[in-house]
Amino acid sequence: MASVASPVIFKEFCPLYYLLNAIPTKIQKGFRSIVVYLTALDTNGDYIAVGSSIGMLYLYCRQLNQMKKYNFEGKCESITFVKLLSCFDDLVAVGTASGRVAVFQLVSSLPGRNKQLRRFDVAGIHKSSITALAWSPNGMKLFSGDDKGKIVYSALDLDQGICNSSLVLEEPSSIVQLDYNQKVLLVSTLQRTLLFYTEEKSVNQVGTQPRK
């Protein structure tokens, strides 16, 4: 029996002026005017997260039509990667050009959900630009990769407010993609793709030839 083709839905694409107009094109720092570049992007059904060259994360809530801003204390540095997750709480992970990684646990108006903004930091393992982030579906695990080939695993306990991080893998070339599911971490670098089994701590390379 032939399968019935799903109906085709036509959508119109247009610039998100309501989003872009809420992000400044320049900021004033002392006597200097600094241009703001948009450097990272992630979306889900509830939020649009935009990272910037001034270290500011712009988070647009689609339900409330509101823009909120989050930043790192201290040095103003470019955000290189953002990753949203919607589970019991809404989470966003942010990585920067110097290797800083932070997780923001967002406030929710829904009953039983988080009522206070909290931030967790991945302490000082990465020393270079963050190039990839991946969540576990329940938000208890975060994997981060950098352009020197380091991959860090962070275990989050949102109830206790604890984040414990450790180096789990080190590759000879830059990490370009991470994805996690069912205790297996998919890792792509400039040279190869591999599967890292987190329980056994073993590696299985995909294919035999290195990338050119």
Explain what you see:
With 212 residues, the protein is an all-beta fold. It has a domain at 15-19 and 32-172: YVTN repeat-like/Quinoprotein amine dehydrogenase (Methylamine Dehydrogenase, Chain H, 7 Propeller), CATH 2.130.10. The chain has one helix and 18 strands. It has one helix at residues 17-20, and strands spanning 26-29, 32-35, 38-43, 47-52, 56-61, 66-71, 79-86, 90-96, 101-105, 118-122, 130-135, 141-146, 150-157, 162-170, 175-181, 184-189, 193-197, 202-206. It has a four-stranded antiparallel β-sheet with strand order 3-4-5-6, with no helix packed on it. It has a four-stranded antiparallel β-sheet with strand order 7-8-9-10, with no helix packed on it. A hairpin with a 2-residue loop joins strand 1 and strand 2. 27% of the residues are buried.
Supply the key terms.
four-stranded antiparallel sheet, Methylamine Dehydrogenase, Chain H, mainly beta, 212 residues
Write the layout of secondary structure elements.
Layout: H1 17-20, E1 26-29, E2 32-35, E3 38-43, E4 47-52, E5 56-61, E6 66-71, E7 79-86, E8 90-96, E9 101-105, E10 118-122, E11 130-135, E12 141-146, E13 150-157, E14 162-170, E15 175-181, E16 184-189, E17 193-197, E18 202-206
Antiparallel strand pairs: 1-2, 3-4, 4-5, 5-6, 7-8, 8-9, 9-10, 11-12, 12-13, 13-14, 15-16, 16-17, 17-18
Pfam family, one: WD40
Protein name: TCPR2 protein
GO cellular component, one term: cytoplasm
